[in-house]
Write a structure and sequence with these properties.
The protein has about 675 residues and is mostly beta strands. The protein has two helices and 58 strands. Among the domains are: about 210 residues, 7 Propeller (Methylamine Dehydrogenase, Chain H), CATH 2.130.10.10; about 80 residues, Sandwich (Immunoglobulin-like).
Length: about 675
């Protein structure tokens, strides 16, 4: 069974997936054979003839993410897809797509937001914040741009005129026989009213189907007889996905992915619906909404969660509006300022902020409750509340406490204060109630001041270094620096290796919003606008840089990162939703043995051209692959708990058919185990 599961993952190494929501249908566009649906800024289609449901994203044919509008052009037989960033795709019913990036790439100070699509002949007229863009859908090019210097809500052709309607500026028109590029030919002819289109109740004359949504938000369609009776053809269809594309923090527990949907900082209120997304690898589900709320409380902006180590399924969720208790996804209880030690800065139910949670190994829950005195709280495993006083957590130094975790190396709790120039890293000895402060006046090992405005996140690598992501780049403190508070952080120097003996600081002055460490001790660093960087174990090499331009990453704004240890799949929470990348590093095992160390696929058949994957390895394990007669054909070091072999010998030539022995040893040289690989050429 393990080998079957693992071979699935192996086939996905280097591949991307998106996990988009389709919960909010906003536009329906029938095309005869397919009906296209814009839902939660994503796209899917449904074929009523065979019931085929198909989703579109950057991993298949789309060039971008965050769709704003769609429209079917029956003359050109293409779906016009426009994105929030003004990029354009054209999709035909055969599943082919053409990107028209000219408008997106055009350098201008004008606001290029597309408000509406109007179809006429083979053209699509795009109403924008500055005028109208005329798109030739058949030839896939921008034919004209009419800069009118008005916010055009929608446009249309009537008689011999092209009309531009702006609720703000009025109704303008231009004779189609005149030069529409000349702004002086456009005349104001009155006021304009907003266009009221019902894009979720649409008639398709080619099939005589009415397309609409069900009460629970699914796509459905019906026919109408001579007596005006409706006959529904389906109970409703919808692709599987999370309830929304709002992901703020990601967690793995028992190989299941959880995500909370909120957003909160001193600068931003998300006011997002309370959602706990759950992905079990096959389908999505959601935690139950609270059945009763207290006072003026709203179930919004969920910020964190953690899992009770003593009772499976028992979960606490922190929010801008308090703390919520769940059992097996079912709501149990709300905690706020009037029934617990949680404090509110106003006071208000909607500002009883719980920004981070962590259970210790004894089953005690630790709570960060910012913006109030005594910001550290706890609930013992038997339900007793406690509050802890620390003068270091006062004023602006406790405004936005987040990313609480317990160090595997020193056993302390670590968290950051992410507030304007209050760039403080905290170390909390929760057993002895002792708090240490690192910052806010940060310097590096060269005694150079670091002007970091923000400290977004913190985590620990396999060497016990405590990393922080800041607006000035990644920093860390080594284990020997964690014994007492300090203002000095290590800003890693990457040698240039160009003979100058010079070095550059790692990702200096790049917003590092999220850091996750994989099984190979590599650092996945997310940024606010530069995508994701993968940094080597020794921090000296940039292994990869993923962005929206060079990969299916759906946004360059990374909010959080989490890694599934057993498979190596790296999940990215972005401002446009959730996506993942299947990496080649898994969590190493403590001991290699014949039960957990194996290779797949096995046997390797002639039609297989991918990597042969060896799993169940210890950290930095030594790998030697030999023939049955003892000849060394390949060697290397594991990446975390995984090693990939291309099936070639030391000279890069494909090895002959036969049985090969994989000899393993630990990093220190202790003997590991042996597994076999059969290769058939």
């Amino acid at each position: 069974m393990l080998s079957v599961v693992s071979s699935v993952f192996a086939s996905k190494i280097g591949q991307w997936q998106t996990y988009m929501s389709y919960g909010d249908i906003t536009e329906i566009e029938p095309s005869g054979s397919n009906t296209y649906v814009l839902a939660s800024e994503g796209l899917f289609s449904y074929n009523p003839e065979d019931g085929t449901l198909y989703t579109y994203d950057k991993t298949n044919i789309l060039s971008d993410a965050g769709i704003r509008h769609i429209a079917w052009n029956k003359n050109a037989k293409r779906l016009v897809v426009v994105y929030s960033n003004s990029n354009i795709d054209l999709i035909s019913n055969d599943g082919k797509a053409v990107n028209v990036p000219d408008f997106y790439l055009k350098s201008t100070t004008l606001d290029k937001t597309i408000n509406h699509i109007y179809i006429n002949g083979i053209y699509a007229y795009l109403s924008t914040k500055f005028g109208i863009v005329k798109l030739n859908v058949q030839d896939a090019n921008i034919q004209d741009t009419y800069q009118l210097d008005i916010d055009v809500d929608h446009c249309y052709i009537e008689g011999n005129y092209l009309y531009a309607a702006s609720v703000q500026s009025g109704l303008y028109r231009c004779d189609l026989n005149q030069n529409q590029l000349d702004k002086s030919n456009w005349q104001r002819v009155g006021n304009a009213t907003a266009l009221h289109e019902d894009k979720t109740n649409v008639y398709d004359p080619s099939t005589k189907y009415w397309w609409t949504t069900t009460a629970d938000g699914k796509l459905t369609y019906y026919t109408v007889d001579a007596d005006n009776n409706k006959s529904y053809k389906t109970e409703g269809v919808l692709p599987d996905g999370p309830a929304s594309n709002n992901f703020y923090r990601l967690y793995f527990h028992k190989n299941i992915l959880y995500g909370v949907s909120g957003l909160w900082s001193q600068d931003t209120d998300g006011n997002r619906k309370g959602e706990v997304h759950v992905w079990n690898g096959d389908c999505w589900s959601e935690f139950e909404k609270p059945t009763a709320l207290r006072g003026d409380q709203n179930y919004i902006d969920l910020l964190c969660m953690d899992f009770d180590p003593l009772k499976e399924g028992h979960v606490m969720v922190g929010a801008k509006s308090g703390m919520y208790e769940f059992q097996d996804g079912k709501f149990i209880k709300t905690f706020s300022y009037d029934n617990s030690l949680l404090g509110s800065p106003f006071p208000s139910y909607n500002y009883t902020i719980v920004s981070s949670l962590k259970y210790d190994t004894q089953g005690n829950l630790w709570i960060l409750n910012p913006l109030v005195d005594n910001s550290i709280k706890s609930i013992s495993k038997d339900g007793q509340w406690a509050s802890y006083t620390h003068s270091e957590l006062s004023g602006e130094s406790n405004y936005n406490l987040q990313k609480l975790f317990i160090s595997k190396t020193n056993g302390k709790m670590w968290f950051v204060n992410n507030y304007n120039f209050q760039t403080i890293l905290y170390s909390y000895d929760y057993i002895n109630d002792a708090l240490e402060v690192y910052g806010p006046d940060i310097i590096n090992q060269d005694n150079t001041s670091i002007s970091a405005q923000r400290m977004y996140c913190t985590t620990e690598d396999r060497n016990g270094n405590i990393w922080v992501g800041t607006s000035s780049g990644p920093l860390y403190i080594s284990p020997d620096m964690t014994s007492s508070g300090t203002n000095t952080f290590i800003q890693h120097k990457v040698p240039r290796n160009d003979g100058t003996n010079l070095a550059d600081y790692l990702l200096s002055n790049i917003d590092i919003t999220a850091i996750a460490v994989d099984g190979g001790n590599r650092k996945w660093m997310g940024t606010s606008s530069n995508g994701v960087f993968l940094i080597s174990d020794d921090n000296n090499s940039q292994i990869a840089h993923f962005s929206t331009d060079n990969s299916p990453l759906i946004s360059n704004n990374i909010i959080d990162i989490v890694i599934e240890e057993q498979t190596g799949e790296v999940f990215f929470a972005t401002d446009k939703g959730l996506c993942s990348y299947m990496s080649d590093a898994t969590e190493p095992v403590e001991e290699m043995n014949k039960d957990n160390t194996y290779a797949y696929p096995n046997p390797v058949r002639p039609d297989y051209n991918g990597f042969i994957t060896i799993v169940g390895l210890s950290y930095n394990a030594d790998i030697k692959i030999v023939s049955v007669n003892g000849t060394l054909v390949h060697q290397g070091r594991s990446n975390g708990g995984t090693y990939l072999w291309d099936g070639n010998d030391m000279n890069g030539k494909r090895v002959a058919s036969g049985v090969y022995m994989v000899n393993t040893a630990t990093e220190s040289g202790s003997k590991g185990t042996v597994c076999k690989i059969a290769i058939i050429n």
